[in-house]
Queue: 3 jobs
Job 1
Amino acid sequence: MADSIQTIQLPNGLTLLMQQMPWLESAAMSLLVPAGSQRDPEGLAGLAGFTAEMVQRGCGQYNSRQFVEQLDRLGAARSASVTNYHTRFSAAVPTNRLRETLALYRELVLAPLLPASQLEDSRMVAMQELLALEDDLAQKLIKVLRKRLYPDPYGRSTTGTMESVQAIQLENIQNHVKNFYVPDQAILSIAGKIDFNEVQNMVDELFGSWQGTVQQELTEHPPAEGHHHIEHDSNQTQIGIVFPSVPYSHPDYFLARSAIGVLSDGMSSRLFTEVREKRGLCYTVYAMCHTIKDYGCVLAYAGTTTERAQETLDVMLQEIRRLGEGIHDDELQRLKARIKTGLIMQQESSSSRSISMASDWHLLGRVRTLDELSTLLDEINSNSINDYLASNPPKQFKIVTLGQKALDTSLADGGVA
């Protein structure tokens, strides 16, 4: 499998990642530019997302409608998203349409039209996303929770606020493209039924003249301390718990990930069993590892009624703390089966593989093969996880709640339930 992956650094700074998946008839590309929400200027939160919307409204010789028609003609299953670090454009096509697809996305990043006539339409899209977030109380909570753990600008949301979105002007978008839609720190990941030499020649021809470097230096500011309550008139209470963990690049990441998997992966996990099945306290409960380049955390969430919110929080904290006492072999074996199923499914998708390769490069500076991931998983055992948990028990909790009233968080600070 390692021989099926190649990495090439272009002179302009663009990293090209390629993996051959010859059993497929498709190829997928993911193009990541260093234009994430961490680059949003003061007072213009949401600019990265606004810009991602605008650049798709025509580029090169194609207006907005023609650009969409070209992608449809190629049969491209495409997506665009903004993270804290990157703006990502992805597309999967039949292999014989790859060059045309790459040529279109080359125009998107090098020659977007950014039509002034569609600025307000794009603003409306951004505002609708914010309004949808107001109705999605769980996501609203998670947005605040991340800001309580990661230093700014790494905890920033991609959506901004109504005020910041209203303040964005065309000149801000043009400057964002000029400063951050550049090959420096950009990643182009391609997976599927491809020939390495052909793809490299395509990319050299299409992207070799792309120029630009990221000039802006980021300044970190520590996150807010303590717990936080968001008052909201609702019969439901949203509960979020966050605590530090290791990032994906850390040697112990998969030990931490496996421990949290025992806590929360699947209907036989501890949180689901104790909080929902045995006690019937909530309708949704989970915990997950979250990572950015240099920081990692565990996010836990539950949605419940106002009356059962305090007990839900207390039981969640008890189960999270109990994880520090260790896990059992049978719990780990169920988790490994679930993760291996995910790895097998990833191997069958050029789209998921192109995205995961780009993520690996960003977080690790290299690409892990699926065989390597499988080996890492096989080597994990309950003793190694328990040793990790003994040295790194869950602690330093921060709690955010959203609902009618604040909850007693003393258990998170060492109190007794």
Note: The longest strand covers residues 236-245.
Job 2
Amino acid sequence: YNPSPVSDVLTSTTLPSSTGIAVGATIKSTDYLNVRGGASLTASTVGVQPINATGIITAGPITAYGHTWWQVNYTTDPDGWSVQDWMGKM
């Protein structure tokens, strides 16, 4: 018996309802948010969104590297993947 290695990445379709964040939700950043090309700390950074930036969740969640990631179509570019830690549902 050879067990396979455990992946650092888990994909989920639901989060606890207390977050209120889901695909289609409008969010607002509560701090500066790095925007990355993928849901990973090793993915390239495509830019930064400022405090109070808004956007719509288009994909996710993906849990990777100790964070929950969402793909966001921000009101102002750049768009991409950001961690949930500094997002609030509007």
Note: The radius of gyration is 14 Å.
Job 3
Amino acid sequence: GASAYIKDDSGISDYPVVIVPGYSATTLHIGDSFETGKKVWGLDFDYVLERVFARIVDLGIGLGAMTVGNAKIIAKTLGEEMRSLFEDIRCNPDGTSAYDVKRKYVTAEESNSQYMLDHMTGTDDRHEQEIAAAIAEYVGVENVYNFTSDFRMGAENCADLLHEFIQDVKKHSGKDKVNIFCLSHGGQATATYLNLYGHLQDVDNAVLTIPAIGGAGILFDAFNCDIDFDEECLIRFIEHGTMTEEDYNWLVKAQQL
């Protein structure tokens, strides 16, 4: 990652800050508006849990089979559930969306953090809230904007949308430049944007944090069946998923994996 820390407040500009988040951060829906349409991303974990309990027997049989080296049952069960869960965001073989999927927030006005706080009902869709709060201490929450993209599309599509969004932020804020803070996939989108549109000099500073500029190898490995899902990997998934430092080795031993 690349970043800079400025301790002296006098060195901070009054340019608005655009937050470009990690992969899958954007809320997506199908329909004319988010209020009347169908939310298709992000995940409703209550629904996911409901589906898990509905197929708990199949999953239990599958986990039992995995202990003797046969993962076909759990792969079939999870595959069916994943296909059903993600049907609405499915893409065609040519990369286009199978359905008319739209982003929840598009314009600079509705993506402004202060506007979102004033008009928010229910889910808080502001990006990277802990980091954004620290940034807001310097520039004000009214100068923080939340960029959205359809993460299923390519990096160039995200870059084009970011270019359009920055023009809108400049108009909305009355400033001639913006600053960018981006994370992970947001770093890939921002790097692509800077490559395609950097010559326009619309950006004063860009902070790239763990940027996936070169992409990520996990899907490549998955499609090439080059994945080892052993007990150590399972522990890491559990610990990362629950965001805890708890030691779950006892769970693996108890299940005799």
Note: Strands lie at 17-20, 28-30, 38-41, 101-103, 144-146, 178-183, 203-209.
